[in-house]
């Protein structure tokens, strides 16, 4: 028994090291003088904290961060609302054709972005939604739906039938059952889905690159390409820009860490 616990802790420590070592390498690289040529994990002789301000200015991060926030602020609540409603309808209400619809959403999980982005561009161009935030928001919400519906279906399938039946006996309509009975006990699952949606929306690169032709209206990850030249790459500034881009994700995760972990473990335990 002790040996099994030791193995599990050993695996967790190994995974932690595998995640933290590259992160520490990026931090060290970001603190070298601009233009420095780096070789492995080297400690900078002089800590260049000004790299972050310089990377922010050169990468036009003010405009790009504004675009990322604007898109995420609309994508996350819209996607979560649609996923909750769809999961509720397919699992609790058992709408007509729910099994076929569920299978369709699961199949949607297998579609890679590279396969559909070109067709999606031409479809949105026909209705005038390219080079606009509206097109990107709608596209991301649609692309995130398969996982969100699958996630909420899995959560609602663990809700005891007696709880829903008791609410209906008391005269509660379908919408009231969702809002007053199921959602209060579903916040961990909803919070976890919201954090995942925010992370995916914030990190979205290819979709924004294809749909948004105006460089000043693209999102933060697209700004990283400004630090990569044809012949040379400014590694310290690129590393500093990477830390700037991932900082909001880290902050959001830390703020919702407890609910996020609760939602993950809740989905792994039946009953």
Automatic annotation (TrEMBL):
The keyword Ribosomal protein does not apply. The keyword Transferase does not apply. Keywords: Cell membrane, Membrane, Transmembrane, Transmembrane helix, Transport. It is a multi-pass membrane protein. Its main location: membrane. The chain crosses the membrane at residues 12-31, 69-93, 100-121, 133-152, 177-200, 235-256. Residues 65-256 form the ABC transmembrane type-1 domain. One of its GO terms (cellular component) is plasma membrane. It is found in: Cell membrane. Pfam families: BPD_transp_1 (PF00528). GO terms for biological process: transmembrane transport. Belongs to the binding-protein-dependent transport system permease family. This is Raffinose/stachyose/melibiose transport system permease protein. It comes from Nonomuraea solani.
């Amino acid at each position: 028994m002790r040996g099994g616990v030791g193995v599990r802790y050993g695996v967790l420590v190994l995974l932690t090291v595998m995640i933290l070592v590259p992160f520490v390498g990026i931090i060290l690289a970001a603190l070298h003088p601009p233009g420095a040529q780096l070789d492995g994990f080297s400690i900078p002789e002089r800590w260049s904290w000004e790299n972050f301000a310089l990377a922010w200015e050169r990468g036009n991060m003010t405009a790009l961060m504004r675009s990322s926030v604007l898109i995420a602020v609309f994508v996350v609540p819209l996607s979560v609302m649609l996923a909750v409603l769809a999961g509720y309808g397919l699992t609790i209400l058992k709408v007509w054709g729910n099994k076929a619809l569920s299978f369709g959403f699961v199949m949607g999980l297998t579609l890679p972005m590279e396969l559909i982005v070109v067709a999606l561009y031409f479809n949105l161009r026909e209705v005038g939604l390219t080079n606009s935030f509206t097109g990107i928001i709608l596209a991301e919400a649609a692309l995130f739906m398969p996982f969100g519906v699958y996630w909420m279906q899995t959560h609602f399938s663990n809700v005891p039938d007696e709880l829903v039946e008791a609410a209906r006996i008391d005269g509660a309509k379908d919408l009231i059952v969702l809002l007053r009975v199921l959602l209060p006990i579903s916040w961990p699952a909803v919070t976890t889905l919201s954090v995942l949606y925010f992370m995916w929306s914030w990190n979205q690169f290819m979709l924004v690159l294809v749909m948004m032709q105006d460089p000043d209206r693209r999102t933060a990850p697209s700004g990283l390409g400004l630090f990569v030249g044809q012949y040379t790459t400014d590694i310290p500034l690129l590393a500093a820009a990477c830390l700037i881009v991932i900082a909001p994700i880290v902050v959001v995760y830390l703020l919702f860490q407890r609910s996020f972990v609760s939602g993950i473990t809740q989905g792994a335990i039946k009953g």
